[in-house]
Amino acid sequence: MRPVAFISGASRGIGRETAIAFARAGFDIAISARTVTPGEVHAHAVRHADGRALAGSLADTAEAARAFGGAVLPLRMDLLDEASLRQAAREAIGHFGRLDVLINNALYQGEDLNRPFLELETQTLTRVAQGYLIAPFLLARELVPTMLEQGGGTVINITSGAGECDPPVPAGQGGWGYAYGAGKAAVSRLSGILARELGERGIRAYTVNPGVVATETLEATLGEQGVHALGHRAAPPTLPAAVLLWLATSPEAPAHQYRTLHAQPFAREQGIVVE
Question: Quick count: other Cβ atoms within 10 Å of Cβ 184?
Fold first, then answer.
């Protein structure tokens, strides 16, 4: 029986490359995002400075993943819509009958996400709470019981340095704002709770910070000035994808729970090879 992974935010960037990496490794995958077909336009979506939508869709990711012979289930899911979250989780279980890995990669990315503090409105914080706190909780709450019935499974939550440290420059000049930092701080707390409460029943949980990764979203969100201010060379999205696969499959992975794993140095330390 092939293992099954559920990967949110799989239309582009790290989520897309993670879906492809898991498919290549022999997993059947459920992939979710709002953008199912190329060119779709959504409210609260990141756009290029000229107004263009970012490239990528679930259809594109599914086509690339199916080349490896496994089953791929694309699921339309909106982090701000609790009904769509529950529906996607239940469709995945109904289709595959099991789940071995959940990767909470999707995030709210509205243009208001990194506004300076004095321009920030409570509506933004409400959406961030839904996308960064409630959505990962709901997916885990819907899917972990199936893992427990099977005897175990793995949950990986994608965080950011923004949830653990202060920005190098102000919001509006390429730095992140309070809303994004607070959202990612919330994401960072989920894995340890799951591991502590459910570890004896077979649940492994990890928090991963991909670091600076060369994606369209990063450039569109922070701009070239912001990326430069981070002071790091951007890694390809295939690198964090390889780390996530290692955490889901390596017998050595459980020793790395209860801390945030920084994907780029971690890959070097463990000799994780990017496909």
Answer: 22
Domain 4-270 grouped into CATH 1.10.760.10: no
Largest separation between any pair of C-alpha atoms in the chain: 54
Structure tokens at 119: 């321009």
For residue 158, the model assigns a pLDDT of 97
Q: Is the pLDDT of residue 245 over 70?
A: yes
Q: Which of 115, 108, 111, 106 is nearest to 129 (CA)?
A: 108
- Please tell me the pTM assigned to this model: 0.90
With beta carbons less than 8 A apart as the criterion, state whether 5 and 245 touch: no
What band does 45 get if pLDDT is binned at 50, 70 and 90? Answer: low
Q: How confident is the model at residue 41 (pLDDT cuts 50, 70, 90)?
A: low
Sign of the Cα torsion 195, 17, 217, 82 reads negative
Residue 1 is predicted with a pLDDT of 85
The residues, ordered by sequence, that sit 6+ positions from 97 with a Cβ below 8 Å of its Cβ are: none
Instruction: With CA atoms as reference, report the closest residue to 98 among 158, 162, 30.
Output: 30
* Residue/partner pairs of 120-125 with CB below 8 Å, 24 or more apart: 120/177, 120/178, 120/179, 124/179, 125/179, 125/182
CA dihedral for 247, 270, 257, 252, sign (positive or negative): positive
Q: What is the pLDDT of residue 258?
A: 97
CA distances from 206 to 189, 249, 271 (A): 10, 13, 18
